[in-house]
Amino acid sequence: MSAIDDVFERCREEKRAAFIPYLTAGDPDLETTGGLLQALVSGGADLIELGVPFSDPIADGPTNQRAAARALASGTKLEGILELVARHRDRLGVPVLLFTYFNPILARGVERFAEQAADSGVDGVLCLDLPPEEAREVYLPAMRARGLDTVFLLAPTSSKERIALAAQASTGFVYYVSRTGVTGAPTHLSRELVREVRQVKKRVRMPLAVGFGISTPRQVADVAQVADGVVVGSALVRLVEEYGRDPELPSALEQRVRELTAPLQRR
User: How many other β-carbons are positioned within 10 Å of the β-carbon of residue 225?
Assistant: First the structure.
């Protein structure tokens, strides 16, 4: 079992969903990100999604686009992100999943990327814009050879065939996008989400995490009733944007994560 498998197994034993926060690496700079990773864990994170900033983040809404721009402006590069993970992974004590577009992987070379990511302590990779059928020849073998979990996306528009492909290519968990469109934090979740998630879980024999648009403790609680994991991203990225390099940011982030994870704790 991988470290990500262990997280979902432990949460299953505790009869709760896993909490998976997302931050953009290098926002506002890599040194600050290191402290924020620990704040996420102290607040109750079970698994961290760490975003690799990209110049054309087509799947991201305005909040995460601005975060990527700030990270790139601060000089953040993939090499620095991997070094950051290497410095902090053991201290964190939770798995780290890189959330990236395919271009940074391709530019580095898929096999080289997989080797360096694994050596740095990365536990898995979610590549947003790489369809599972295009991942078979090079990407999946390279990731498997280095023991990295591969997470793929599903959406409300995914066909039965697409669900099957994503499930076959995924290890660790499958990421279900709660709505069509880009990342962001709307006020209300889709009324159809519960039904959709239950339908997908009938076809996916591994943990299913739900993200995109989850931003409040109430929404976390609602999604946790049907999903194995709950992802919160834009709401936390917005907090980083508000505080910037303010030294109070880590404590504010930890407190926000505590509020979001409160509905998941055993009573």
Answer: 10
Residues 161 and 188 sit within 8 Å (Cβ to Cβ) = no
Residue 19 pairs in a beta bridge with 230
3-class SS at 96?
strand
Which residue carries 């997470």 as its tokens? 151
Cβ contact 123:2 at 8 Å: yes
**Domains of the chain from N-terminus onward:** 3-261 (3.20.20.70)
- Rounded to 10 deg, the angle between the 249-261 and 234-243 helix axes is 160
**51, 8 Cβ separation under 8 angstroms:** no
Dist. CA 243–CA 119, nearest whole Å: 32
Q: Tell me which residues are annotated as active site.
A: 49, 60
Q: What is the pLDDT of residues 177-211, one digit of tens each?
A: 985 444 444 445 566 788 889 889 999 989 999 99
The model carries a pTM of 0.93
Write down the residue that tokens 């069509």 correspond to.
180
Whether residue 7 contacts residue 95, with contact meaning beta carbons closer than 8 Å, is answered with yes
Q: H or E element: which one contains 6? A: helix 3-13
| Beta bridge partners of residue 18, listed in sequence order | 229
Range 142-166 burial, b when 16+ CB lie within 10 A, else e: bbeebebbbbbbbbbebeeebbebb
CA distance 54 to 71: 9
